[in-house]
C-alpha cells in the first residue's frame, strides 16, 4: 500500500511511495504528529540519482522489520534535496559541524521542533568497519529519547543556537580588486597538478566555475598562466572517463584509485554539471578556437537535448548512475562500460581492435568484472577521425548499440535554477556554432519556466514535473540562475521580453533575499517558511551559490539597463569574493568570474540595424556575441527600440548597421566593421 509520498511531484519521493516505512513529506503536519505522539523525527534526505540513497533504501527502508520499528518509534520524513535545498543546507551544516563530513543519504534525528541532536549519512544494515547498523542507531536514539530526554534537549538546543548564530555579512568588504584576482590565481596554481592537468585530490569534480574565472582573467589581465590552466583542466576532463566518450556529456565526478591508476567515474549525469560545462567549453572555443572544445561543447549540448529534454520543453534533473546490467542486477555504470567482447559484437573484429586502442579498453578491465570505462589515454598514435567519429563511424555505432541496453532511470522533474543554467548554455552554444535548434531548445525551456513556474507576481516555483508545478518556493539560486539564462537569451535572440522577465526576478532578489543594511544575501526569501535558521551560503559547490549567481545576474542586468540599484547590489554582494577569493578560490569560482566582469566594466555592446535579419546586422551581432570581454552584454535591434535601454540614442552610421561598445552607458566611437568590433571586444 502506498504511503503519503504517492502524491509527490519528486521522482525521488515517488521511489519511496511503496516503502513499508510510513513516510511523511516535509510538512508542518509531520512535526505536529511527532509532538502529539511524543516521538523524535527521523529526517532522511537524498535525491533520485544518488547511488547510496538507493542502497540504503533497499537495505533498510524496504525491510519490513526495520519499517515496523521506525513506524512505532519515529515520525519519518523524506526530503528530496533538489526540491528543498534550504532544508538540505540547514541540516547538512549541522551534520558537517558534528561529524566533520557530509553526504547523501543524510540521516538526521530531531525534536518535534526541528532541532537536530543526532546525525549521520549512510548506515548499513549490519555493523561494519566501525560503523553501527541502522537498527542500532534507531534503538540508541529511541533509548536516549525515552531515558535521557534532558540530555537530548540540551544537545539539540546547543546545536540550534550555534547554527542560528552563523550569520555572514561582508557587504562592507568592498569589491574585489586586481590584487584579489591575482592572489586567487596564485592559490589556484598551488592547487593544480601540472603533470595531470587536474586539481590535486583523489576525488575530482568538474571545476566549471573556476575555469570560467580563468578564461575571463586571461582576457582581462593577459594572463597566459590562467589560459594554460583552463586548457589543461578542460583537456584532462575531456580525455578522461569523466566524459562520456560515446554519447557526450559529463558524469558527476571521478575517483583516483591509486597512483597511475585509471580514473573511475561516479556515473550519474546531472543537468547542472552539463549545462555549466557546455558553456565553459563553448567559451574556451571562443577564446582559442580549440577543436576539442568545440566538439565537447556541441556533444554536451546534444546530450542534454537528446536525453534530458522533457515533453514539456524543459530539462530533467539527472540520469541515475545505476541501471540493469542485462542479468537482472542493478549495477552502477552498467550502461556505459564495455568489454573487448562487447566491442567486437557491436563493431566487428577490425573496428573493435581500433576502438580498444582508441578508448583504452583492456582485457583485464579498468572498472569492474573485466569491463572498461572509455577514455582517451595519452598516446602518440594518429587515428582515422572519419572512421571513429564520421557518419556511420565507431562512435555512432556504439551509441546505437548502447541504446539497446536498459537505460538508467531519469529524474524527470525540472528544477528552475538548473534549467536557467541550461538556457544560458544552449542559447550561447547555438549562437556560436550556428545551431538554431539549440537556441530554440533554450527558448522552449524559458517558455516552460514562465508558463508553469511563474505565478502572477513573477515569484518562481522551484520545480515542476509533467507540466505540473511543485509546491516548493524558489530559492535564491532559482531567481539568479533563471535571470542569468534569460539575460543570455535576450542577448542571443534580440527579444527584449527576456530582459524584462530577468528584471522581474531580480526585483525579488533585491526586495526579498537581500539584507538592506549589510548587502548580504540569503538563500530563502524573507517570507519563506522559517527553519531553525535562515540558510545563507556564498560558497560555490556543484553549482554557483545563489549569492554569487545573484551578483552576476544583477551586474549583467545593470549593464543592460543602467540601473544603479542593481549595480550597487552586485558590488555589495561581491564583498564576499574579496574576503574569500584569495584563500579558497576553488569555492568561489563563479564569484571570481563575476568580479572579472565588474573590473572590466562589464562592456555593453549595442548593435543597431534596419532589421534583425539584415545580413550586415547579423554579422555585427554574431561578432559581438563572440567577443571575449568578461561578462559583456549585447543588445541588438532597430534604432530607438524600447526593448533594450542600450539601444536608445544609438543611430545607424551613414545609414549602415553599427555597433557601439560602451561602459556605464558611455560609448566609444561606433563602428560598422565586424573586424574592428572584434578587436574592441578581445580584451
The parts where pLDDT drops under 50 for at least 5 residues are none
CATH structural architecture of the largest domain: Alpha/alpha barrel
Number of extended strands: 20
Instruction: Tell me the structural class.
Output: alpha+beta
Binned strand content: 5-15%
**C-alpha termini separation:** 63 Å
CATH-defined topology of the largest domain: Glycosyltransferase
* Biggest pleated-sheet summary: 5 strands, mixed
Give the number of domains: 4
Provide a short characterization of the protein structure.
With 683 residues, the chain is of the alpha+beta class. It is built from 26 helices and 20 strands. The chain folds into four domains: 161 residues, 3-Layer(aba) Sandwich (Glutaredoxin), CATH 3.40.30; 238 residues, Alpha/alpha barrel (Glycosyltransferase), CATH 1.50.10.10; 69 residues, no CATH class; 77 residues.
Describe the overall structure.
With 683 residues, the chain is an alpha+beta fold. 48% of the residues lie in helices and 10% in strands. The protein has 4 domains: 4-164, 3-Layer(aba) Sandwich (Glutaredoxin), CATH 3.40.30; 270-317 and 411-600, Glycosyltransferase (Alpha/alpha barrel); 336-404, no CATH class; 604-680. The strands form 6 sheets. The protein has a 5-stranded mixed β-sheet, with helices on both faces. The longest helix is centred in the middle third of the chain and has 18 residues, at 271-288. The protein is globular and about 85 Å long. The termini are far apart.
Task: Write the SSE topology.
Blueprint: H1 11-15, E1 24-25, H2 28-37, E2 41-46, H3 51-61, H4 64-73, E3 75-80, H5 85-99, E4 106-110, E5 116-120, H6 134-147, H7 149-164, H8 178-191, E6 203-204, H9 208-221, H10 224-239, E7 253-255, E8 264-266, E9 269-270, H11 271-288, H12 291-308, E10 318-319, E11 322-324, E12 330-332, H13 340-347, H14 349-359, H15 385-389, H16 394-403, E13 410-411, E14 414-415, H17 416-432, H18 436-453, E15 463-465, E16 468-469, H19 476-493, H20 497-513, H21 546-561, H22 564-573, H23 575-580, H24 589-600, E17 604-608, H25 615-625, E18 633-637, E19 658-663, E20 666-667, H26 674-680
Parallel strand pairs: 1-3, 2-3, 17-18
Antiparallel strand pairs: 2-4, 4-5, 6-7, 7-8, 9-10, 10-13, 11-12, 14-15, 15-16, 17-19, 19-20
